[in-house]
Amino acid sequence: MQSENYERYSIWGHAILQQADILQPGRYAASGTITRNNRLIEASGVLGLFDTEEEAEVAGLGWARAWIDSHG
Question: What highest taxon heads this organism's lineage (predicted)?
């Protein structure tokens, strides 16, 4: 999980390991969360599947920034 402060919010990018078959490498589902003053503002659903944990986390952060920009 990666987090950062953006505008007046704390944003989080999450990577959830998805392993459908033990013989295949796992992929990561991305999601994002936005909080402010320790209160949940918004959370995404699954944003997509990515090959690496970092790619998924970055996608979650990107979603959170875009949400804040469009609701500010």
Answer: Bacteria
